[in-house]
Amino acid sequence: xxxxxxxxxxxxxxxxxxxxxxxxxxxxxxxxxxxxxxxxxxxxxxxxxxxxxxxxxxxxxxxxxxxxxxxxxxxxxxxxxxxxxxxxxxxxxxxxxxxxxxxxxxxxxxxxxxxxxxxxxxxxxxxxxxxxxxxxxxxxxxxxxxxxxxxxxxxxxxxxxxxxxxxxxxxxxxxxxxxxxxxxxxxxxxxxxxxxxxxxxxxxxxxxxxxxxxx
Amino acid sequence: xxxxxxxxxxxxxxxxxxxxxxxxxxxxxxxxxxxxxxxxxxxxxxxxxxxxxxxxxxxxxxxxxxxxxxxxxxxxxxxxxxxxxxxxxxxxxxxxxxxxxxxxxxxxxxxxxxxxxxxxxxxxxxxxxxxxxxxxxxxxxxxxxxxxxxxxxxxxxxxxxxxxxxxxxxxxxxxxxxxxxxxxxxxxxxxxxxxxxxxxxxxxxxxxxxxxxxx
Lengths: 215, 215
Hints:
The structure is a homodimer of 215-residue chains. By secondary structure, chain A is α/β, with parallel strands linked by helices. Chain A contains eleven helices and six strands. A six-stranded mixed beta sheet of chain A has the order 1-6-5-4-2-3, sandwiched between helices. In chain A, helix 9 (140-151) links the parallel strand 4 and strand 5. The relative contact order of chain A is 0.18. At the A-B interface, helix 1, helix 2, helix 5, helix 10 and helix 11 of A face helix 1, helix 2, helix 5, helix 10 and helix 11 of B.
């Protein structure tokens, strides 16, 4: 057990962390272009399982970066994911983050339809007219509703970050997205979280932001 | 791979999740009183490692619940942890959540002292006069500074939730806290996170809130 504190300047902590992650990932196989995303998720969780369970649709990175460049907004299913996303960098490209979980009309719609508020949030998001990235880190019901809205051609996401966490319909909701033609980044299995959703968003943002490390 | 969606009413999802977690924890040994905390952290991460790496100081549960009952505030090291804590339930007992990361005086103090903003936040928190619970899910530098402030008798936390995540001084910062007499809940090792910090807070809050499941 290490007990002595390592001397690292505040500004160097992140780079040092990414150095350690890169070192420990040696031998793992994944396309190099996805390295910054995989590493930032591991940076956020200290969980190397994400080197194996993150799945990327073909060409998703270029599509995602294009969407951000053209000012896409991000829709989250938790206030926590919204809190974790670097909104300053997103704003540089004209985007903002939406979360409707606390909205009265969403609560009313969920009650009326016998669904979750997270699912009702997706209906509300479908009415937005900007290009949209969905970052779903908590509620599989949001991901299922998003899938249905795509099937009904009521929504066409630029990117789905499908990383809800948990035990009830989480695995299944992700498999639904993996079977679509939509651009996706999905954490297959039970793992994920609001922190993971925010980390994926930030990894994408930092690829476009010259001032950041962890690429 | 399960593909068929399980039919579960929105209000029953959490209870069903906790049922699955309880089932899969069979055979793991931990004091029953800590079950609600361990299970809620697993609920938040889908990571059963937390059944082994959460450490509790003697009598911490009663001390933590007493602190909440008497209106303790919670100090976090990220906006994300603050976003994840159930502030409505905390307010029932007279508590609120503080996070100073975006404060101009904190940024200035960090620059002047060559430390992180998270560490400077602890100095600011030390000036609060209410009983305090610290929920540190991100920055080991915050935990180290908290330790120093305790050594200097400038602060006496009611509870330290020491669950920063990462690769630089994270392990060491937690060992510092484990060696104190302070009431603590610590995720030993590299794992943790803002989501874990919030989950521990919520587990404690829900133990005091009759209306909640997951106990």
